[in-house]
Specification:
Order of helices and strands: HEEEEEEEEH
Mean pLDDT: 88
Oligomer: single chain
Strand content: 35-45%
Radius of gyration: 16 Å
Number of helices: 2
Number of strands: 8
Length: about 120
């Protein structure tokens, strides 16, 4: 768990002075069923309460927004590590589950490694 945070800080150049917390992203597009994804809360905007967060699966930063067609929010969450998965649980009861190693699955082929010469990348 700490290794994931360390890796994400380095990969996205998040300074050590920035306090980061696990979060659970709720994204709703055009009234569809909400999609829940793990993320990292990085900061609050200077001119408001909206949080700036890292969507780990999409590999980019976002700001919380409420527009006609899209709503993105991130809630502080606890990450619980189980033997076969990780679970993020927000204070409001929302939860998301990901298999062990999901961060490596997303980022491993995005960071050059000499072992690539010996592996099959799909």
């Amino acid at each position: 768990m700490k290794q994931d945070l360390k890796f994400l800080r380095e990969y996205f150049s998040i300074p050590k002075s920035a306090k980061v917390n696990w979060g659970l992203i709720e994204e709703i597009v055009s009234g569809e069923k909400p999609e829940l994804r793990p993320g990292l809360i990085v900061a609050k905007r200077r001119n408001g309460n909206e949080k700036i967060y890292l969507d780990i699966a999409q590999r980019r930063f976002y700001t919380e927004i409420e527009l006609c067609e899209v709503s993105r929010k991130i809630y502080p969450a606890q990450r619980k590590c189980r033997s076969n998965c990780d679970i993020w649980i927000a204070d409001n009861g929302l939860a998301a589950r990901r298999g062990k190693g999901w961060v490596e699955d997303i980022y491993y082929p995005a960071v050059y490694n000499e072992n690539f010469k010996n592996e099959l990348l799909l």
